[in-house]
Amino acid sequence: MKTPPLVLILCTGNSCRSHMAEGILRAAAGDVLDVRSAGSKPAGYVHPLAIRALAEIGIDISAHRSKHLDEFLSLEVETVITVCGNADQACPMFPGQVNRHHWGFDDPAHAEGTEEEQMAVFRRVRDEIRRVFEAYAAGRRDGCNSVKRQSVS
Question: Domain Phosphotyrosine protein phosphatase I spans what residues (predicted)?
Answer without folding.
Answer: 5-139
